[in-house]
Specification:
alpha+beta, Beta Polymerase, domain 2, seven-stranded mixed β-sheet
Length: 483
């Protein structure tokens, strides 16, 4: 057992409550894992893991009685959890684990604190604080986690082949922690022997459920610089297992001296740009906006063509990409609800604002963009602004200046015409009642003409203008009001 300055880390009263309760029961309790790591990093953490040399469930029950709170018991996992003043505390008995080749579900036996630390994924997550009265707050760090934390190193307590083969999810967790813990001041790196081990064990990913894979991908996407995680996934061969479509974006092809950009690098830059824009705007990270950024160019390899006159083209990649989104989501067991439709919409529309930048910005074009994007227009504009990348800073600056003009035009047109979430002033019921007719194709035709007239600026977006226009169009179709 070693000591490190831990003053202030265990000041919350919950720790003294646990310490006293463990003493009353004659067991030893330790704070372990992420809370300990984040204390040294100066990061807030409201999730506390307690490992008990004895029954974690029994200790949790005893403490719940003291606090007059509820405890949730998960017998299959040998854990119990309670909440206290905004803090979530999970208890588990110290244990050692062994694994079968075809499963990441361990065979569990009672063990010591060191057994429990050995089963942890990384040294920085294996540190513990003692809650015993005689050495309260002492750091228990048999594998040098505090040293690795200081050096910005992701390393396994055991041989990495054992750690990653036993539970291949740890390979994704290695990437996630390296990404999550990195800052502009310090980049966390996976040690070379662990990187080599991940490459050797990449095929073990096949035993993981898609849900667990996506859970890790989502956490990587929500970091301040998600590109780092995807670069690590690529360099360790994990990307081929989790999102092979993304791997196909890699590479640059040249014909007759004309080359296209590396679409993989571009995609990661767009992803980072979105993350930075959210921070700058003071917004919470939007997971689905980041998925849209990750997938916005996903169909470029399928649509790539070489034209001797103009070079490389990717015509229609936004349309093809939008068609692919449901299949990609389904393959990853992701939701096929409004979240998928949101990503699909942004992928399909991601070129539209850019087109307005390079062309004359007409009210009609802006109305149509507002109509199709609806409430997602602000997110679409973030994505499209992030999509402006080039090695030529003057070109980027010029495009971004023009982009500001488009944003201003959006505000102006929206204020004047109220097109966002457009609803046709003319309803089918109104047309049927006015002309004494039943449901028919002509009603849809008249409504479509009204919609187009409003979007083209021929008439204003009001019932009166729409009604007058519709009556004139209906008259040409031989309809006269029955009233």
């Amino acid at each position: 057992m070693s000591t490190t300055i831990t003053k202030g880390f265990l000041d919350d009263e919950i720790f003294s409550i646990i310490s006293k309760a463990a003493s009353e029961m004659g067991v030893k309790a330790f704070v372990i894992g992420g809370y300990v790591r984040d204390c040294f990093l100066g990061r807030p953490n409201k999730d506390i893991d307690i490992v008990v040399q004895g029954s974690g469930i029994a200790l949790a029950g005893h403490i719940a009685g003291i606090l007059h709170t509820n405890v949730s018991v998960f017998k299959n996992f040998g854990t119990a959890m309670l909440r206290y003043k905004g803090i979530e505390v999970e208890f588990v008995g110290a244990r050692k684990e062994s694994y079968r080749r075809n499963s990441r579900k361990p065979i569990v036996e009672d063990g010591t604190l060191e057994d429990d630390q050995l089963r942890r994924d990384f040294t920085i997550n294996a540190m513990a604080f003692s809650l015993q009265k005689e050495d309260y707050g002492a750091l228990v760090d048999p594998f040098g986690g505090i040293r690795d934390l200081s050096a910005g190193i992701i390393r396994t307590p055991l041989d990495p082949d054992t750690t990653f083969s036993d539970d291949p999810l740890r390979m994704l967790r290695a990437v996630r922690f390296a990404t999550k813990l990195s800052t502009p001041e310090q980049e966390f790196k996976i040690v070379p022997e662990a990187l080599d081990s991940i490459r050797r064990n990449a095929s073990r990913m096949e035993i993981l459920s898609k849900e667990r894979i996506v859970e890790e991908l989502n956490k990587i996407l929500l970091t301040p610089k998600p590109s780092y995680g995807f670069e690590l996934l690529d360099s360790t061969n994990l990307l081929e297992w989790v999102l092979p479509q993304l791997s196909k974006l890699k590479g640059v092809e040249m014909i007759d001296g004309k080359a296209h950009k590396d679409n993989f690098s571009h995609t990661l830059q767009v992803l980072d740009n979105v993350a930075a824009a959210e921070v700058q705007a003071g917004r919470e990270p939007n997971l689905w906006l980041r998925w849209a950024a990750l997938l916005h160019d996903i169909a470029k390899p399928a649509t790539k063509r070489f034209d001797p006159a103009i070079g490389w083209t990717f015509y229609g990649h936004e349309i093809v990409g939008a068609r692919w989104i449901p299949k990609i989501f389904q393959s990853l067991k992701m939701p096929l609800n409004e979240k998928m439709k949101y990503v699909q919409k942004l992928v399909e529309l991601h070129l539209r604002p850019i087109a307005l930048v390079t062309e004359e910005v007409t009210d009609s074009a802006v109305r149509r963009l507002l109509f199709e994007a609806g409430d997602d227009i602000d997110d679409l504009m973030i994505l499209c602004s992030a999509d402006i990348t080039s090695k030529n800073p003057q070109k980027v600056a010029r495009l971004k200046d023009n982009f500001e003009l488009v944003k201003a035009k959006l505000v102006e047109v929206e204020a004047k015409d109220a097109i966002r979430n457009f609803k046709n002033p003319i309803t089918g019921d109104y047309v049927m009642e006015l002309y004494g007719i039943g449901p028919c194709n002509l009603i849809g035709k008249l409504k479509e003409q009204v919609k187009e007239a409003i979007l083209d600026g021929v008439i204003e977006n009001s019932f009166e203008a729409a009604d007058a226009f519709m009556r004139e169009a209906a008259l040409k179709e031989g309809l006269t009001p029955v009233k």
